[in-house]
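R.M. (postdoc): so does anyone remember the format we settled on? I'll just put the structure tokens first.
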């Protein structure tokens, strides 16, 4: 989550996406190991004044005269980041420049800037600084104005620039890319917000369905803390888990507020804010950048990964906001089978045990991303991108659509039935009207089947058979499909529930069940090993396609939670992030329903209370009922492509 993802940061921040202690600055490389950059680029360091007088540290790498067959002038490619732009010093160079190898060999001016209050930049850092639509004085600043002022300075001072600017960034830098194109500077011609943090409470990093993303947030904020600038090195963390079993660690800690009072040696106000703002209050609403994505005058390509454990919802919200507020703009959505930032650093041919048949990341970098910037910043010819360029899992092919979701996608209800059946047919009168299970906060359902020391992104498509055997997980599945079935767009549970508690979570998982006679992959000849002592058995494999929690006290409002009335049948409706997946002929569609997903999300005590500060006595068992009668039907609304 929020990993420091310029390409300077890829090697140290993304390789282990969702690790427990994120690196905040790139790894520097001795001059002997990056001789190419020394011989082809001159590095400049500026302290660029903003309109309020604050100076932002900026590293600029300019092609040397004669280094490239293209003698310039060159466009600028800007990334703004809170994770540091080291190595600092004009004689020190990073391991690589630009979003991929193609860029540093093509002739660009690369610009990397520390945002306010981070590392070598002056000022005060504010988490996802709220955008100001109206600025009445030079002291009214935000990340849009900082980008504008930065470009104004660089156009006058960066040697041999052609007056054109591109913006790019992944995760937190993706947010700064989105913010930077609001009220666009005329020089900005192309921008690519990638996995941009967008609305942290509504299914981005902080909260999903009102449930706190426990393990990732705590792990991230161990390293991401306030700093007294200037500083050239990341802050060390003295915290040690002293265990590789995060399930037991977080279970033993009790209420999440204990992570501050008992676990942290150094208090972190950033983590505190995430923890205590547990409704969609003003703190979150004013940080929703999608509300302000207006007056954009450049081509935009938003990038997402289907298996992004951190910022999957954000790119879609960003794409749709840009589309709605800026009619006629070149606005493209690209989604591949990637983890958080995976398109920038790995081959993209596999997540966990699931393979995708090709090196999708290489295809994106060479055939989509590089031509996009070449076209808008250098006038190079390029094939026009579709409105949505998305990878379809299951069939493992790229699809081009003129809208997202596809215009021909039809909403259909996938109904839960008695006896664990799942069907597009609604329930009938003679069925048993509900199923139930006991949810125990002292024994929450884990999100993986083996001890882990961090949230590994592979859980996003991992085998779910371990959960299907638990008594506190309900399982519904179709008969084997007689033809391929493609679902493209959001997945929206429509549940009818009852609980003996006054608050509960309902986690819904959409799963692709492989046939019992599914062969061992041809490229290995043997079952592939996974974490732990077992080996993958693809016969009957239950591949997670999408999963999401919903905290029932938010069923009617994200701002004003409401208690459940014990024993009363209640509607719980919500939407899960989009998918583009084909369930192949012979496979089954499965839905699992449970009331915990630990420690991916925090535990719901199942008592209506202020959850971060819940008392031990408030964590109680609850009997959860899922109804599937003609008058109280539960279903998933899915978008089926004919």
């Amino acid at each position: 989550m929020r990993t420091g993802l310029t390409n300077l940061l890829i090697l140290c921040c993304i390789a282990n996406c969702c690790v427990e202690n994120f690196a905040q600055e790139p790894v520097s490389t001795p001059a002997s190991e990056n001789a190419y950059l020394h011989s082809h680029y001159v590095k400049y360091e500026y302290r660029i004044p903003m309109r309020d007088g604050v100076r932002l540290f900026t590293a600029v790498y300019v092609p040397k005269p004669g280094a490239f067959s293209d003698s310039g002038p060159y466009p600028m490619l800007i990334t703004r980041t809170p994770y540091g732009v080291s190595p600092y010093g004009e004689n020190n160079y990073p391991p690589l420049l630009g979003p991929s190898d193609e860029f540093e060999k093509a002739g660009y001016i690369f610009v990397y800037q520390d945002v306010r209050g981070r590392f070598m930049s002056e000022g005060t850092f504010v988490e996802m600084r709220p955008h100001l639509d109206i600025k009445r004085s030079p002291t009214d600043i935000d990340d849009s104005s900082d980008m504008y002022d930065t470009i104004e300075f660089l156009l006058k001072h960066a040697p041999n620039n052609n007056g054109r600017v591109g913006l790019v960034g992944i995760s937190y830098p993706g947010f700064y890319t989105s913010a930077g194109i609001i009220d666009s500077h005329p020089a900005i011609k192309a921008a690519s917000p990638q996995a941009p943090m967008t609305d942290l409470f509504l299914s981005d990093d902080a909260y999903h369905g009102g449930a706190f993303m426990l393990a990732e947030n705590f792990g991230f904020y161990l390293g991401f803390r306030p700093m007294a600038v200037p500083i050239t090195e990341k802050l060390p963390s003295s915290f040690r888990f002293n265990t590789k079993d995060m399930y037991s660690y977080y279970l033993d800690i009790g209420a999440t507020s204990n992570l501050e009072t008992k676990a942290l040696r150094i208090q972190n106000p950033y983590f505190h804010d995430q923890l205590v703002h547990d409704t969609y209050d003003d703190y979150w609403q004013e940080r929703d950048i999608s509300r302000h994505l207006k007056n954009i005058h450049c081509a935009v390509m938003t990038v997402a990964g289907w298996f992004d454990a951190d910022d999957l919802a954000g790119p879609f919200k960003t794409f749709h906001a840009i589309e709605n507020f800026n009619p006629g703009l070149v606005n493209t959505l690209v989604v591949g089978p990637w983890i958080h930032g995976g398109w920038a650093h790995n081959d993209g041919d596999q997540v966990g045990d699931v393979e995708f048949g090709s090196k999708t990341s290489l295809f994106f970098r060479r055939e989509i991303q590089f031509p996009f910037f070449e076209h808008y910043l250098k006038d190079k010819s390029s094939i026009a991108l579709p409105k949505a360029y998305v990878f379809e899992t299951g069939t493992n092919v790229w699809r081009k659509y003129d809208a997202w979701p596809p215009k021909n996608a039809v909403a259909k209800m996938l109904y839960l039935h008695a006896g664990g059946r799942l069907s597009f047919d609604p329930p009938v009168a003679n069925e048993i009207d509900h199923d139930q299970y006991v949810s125990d906060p002292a024994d929450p359902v884990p999100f993986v089947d083996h001890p882990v020391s961090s949230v590994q992104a592979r859980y996003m498509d991992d085998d779910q058979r371990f959960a299907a055997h638990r008594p506190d997980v309900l399982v519904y599945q179709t008969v084997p499909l007689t033809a391929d079935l493609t679902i493209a767009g959001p997945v929206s549970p429509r549940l009818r529930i009852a609980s003996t508690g006054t608050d509960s979570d309902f986690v819904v998982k959409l799963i692709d069940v492989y046939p019992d006679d599914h062969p061992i992959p041809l490229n290995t000849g043997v079952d592939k090993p996974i974490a732990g002592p077992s080996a993958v058995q693809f016969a009957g494999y239950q591949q997670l396609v999408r999963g999401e929690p919903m905290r029932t006290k938010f069923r009617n409002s994200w701002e004003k939670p409401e208690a459940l009335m014990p024993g009363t049948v209640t509607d719980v409706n919500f939407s899960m992030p989009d998918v583009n997946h084909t369930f192949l002929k012979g496979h089954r569609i499965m839905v699992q329903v449970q009331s915990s997903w630990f420690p991916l999300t925090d535990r719901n005590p199942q008592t209506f209370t202020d959850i971060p500060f819940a008392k031990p006595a408030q964590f109680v068992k609850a009997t959860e009922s899922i109804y599937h009668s003609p008058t109280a039907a539960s279903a998933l609304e899915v978008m089926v492509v004919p």
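R.M.: ...and that's the designed sequence above, right after the tokens. Also worth knowing: The longest helix spans residues 360-378. The two ends are 35 Å apart (CA to CA).
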